[in-house]
Amino acid sequence: MDEFDIPIFKKTYELYKKFYGFRNTVSRQDRYTLWQRCENMMLDVLEGILSASQLPKCEKLPILERVSLKLNFLRVFIRLMKEVKTLDNKKYVSLQEDVDEVGRMLGGWIKSTKER
Q1: Which of 98, 86, 90, 85 is nearest to 32 (CA)?
Q2: 13 by DSSP, 3-state: which?
Q3: Dihedral angle, C-alpha 94, 95, 96, 101, nearest 10 °
Q4: CA distance 90 to 82
Q5: Per residue in 34-43, pLDDT tens?
Q6: Whole-angstrom Cα distance, residue 30 to residue 108?
Q7: Domain extents for the chain?
Q8: pLDDT for 15
C-alpha cells in the first residue's frame, strides 16, 4: 500500500498547503510566534500519520494517540489565532473544518486500531 494514498494523509497534506497559503496574510510579528507553532504542529501531525502508516497494527496506537493530542493543541491554537485577529473569520472556519475532518478520520483510525 502506498502511504501517500491514505485519505487522512491526503487531507492533512491539503490542510497544510491551505495553511501555508495564508502565510503572507499574517503580520510579521505573528508569523514567528503562534503561526510558527501551528505550522510545526501540522507538520508533526503529518509526520505522525506517515509514521503510523508504516507500522504494524499493534504499534500504531501510541503514535496515533500522540497525533490526536497534537491535533487538539492545533485546534486551540487556531482558535486563538482567530481571537487575537491573526486569522480572519473566513480563514478560521475553513481551517477549523479541515482540522475537524482530520480529527474524525483520526478517531476512526484509532478506534479500528483498538479493535483487535
Answers
A1: 86
A2: helix
A3: 90
A4: 10
A5: 999 999 999 9
A6: 34
A7: 3-114
A8: 97
Cell numbers describing residue 91: 480563514
Cell of 10: 491526503
For helices 7-21 and 89-114, the axis angle rounded to 10 degrees is 160
pLDDT band of 116, cuts 50, 70, 90: low
Cα–Cα distance between 97 and 82 in angstroms, integer?
Answer: 14
- Would you state the cell numbers that stand for residue 34, as one nine-digit string? 503562534
- Can you read off the three cell numbers belonging to residue 35? 503561526
pLDDT averaged over every residue in the chain: 94
- What's the rounded Cα separation, in Å, for the pair 74 and 19? 12
Predicted pLDDT of residue 30: 86
pTM for the predicted model, two decimal places: 0.92
Q: What is the pLDDT of residues 63-90, one digit of tens each?
A: 999 999 999 999 999 999 999 999 999 9
- Residue 48 grid coordinates: 505522525
Among residues 65, 59, 52, the alpha carbon closest in space to that of 103 is found at 65
CATH C-level class of 3-114: mainly alpha
